[in-house]
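Proteins fold reproducibly. Next comes a concrete instance:

***
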Amino acid sequence: MAAKKKRQSFKKALLQKLGLWLLPPIGALLIRVIYHTSKKRFNLPAHVPEDPVIFAFWHGDLLLMPYLYYRFRDTPNANVLISDHFDGRIIARVMRYFRLGTIHGSSNRNAAKVLIAAMRTLKAGADIGITPDGPRGPRYEVADGIVAMAQKTGAKVIVFSCVPSRCWRLKSWDRFVIPKPFGRLTFFASEPVDLKGLEMEAAKEMVKSKLMEHALE
């Protein structure tokens, strides 16, 4: 029994290692193909603060968010909060192809450590990208972390979303969205939202209401 478990553990580790090597370049290529074969429309705020901001988007909408971020910053300078699970490590490596850094952790694991790292990033002059319902849901529910981060640093929140004309939906908890090539992509970004002085639940509801304006059901 012990030998069988050892073989299974070795096989799992080997498959994960191969996945970390093969999947990120394939994922980055897929993202580029979808984006460059689609018609795009951007709805952007009139003004974006020069100071670092927090970009928020639902976990299921993560795929094309780097391209929306590029519309705000000529020189990308952001860290995205990504879970430290296997799928999170794959996403982190994909983000490198788009010149974005990552901070590993979640609201469930190492929450205090992640919050401190994110606040240091903001204070150092870089933006933060966050999925308020990640990494394991519940879907479309905002965790406390984004509010704590914004209120402790004074950073504004800008809500991102992308609405594709055609897409595939995975059967994952977040109903992850993969837009189909040769369609239409409509990007939305909110005006900067200031959470200063709000109670936790009121601040979370404000962020959620902005995120739900263009959310796919």
Notes: The mean pLDDT is 90.
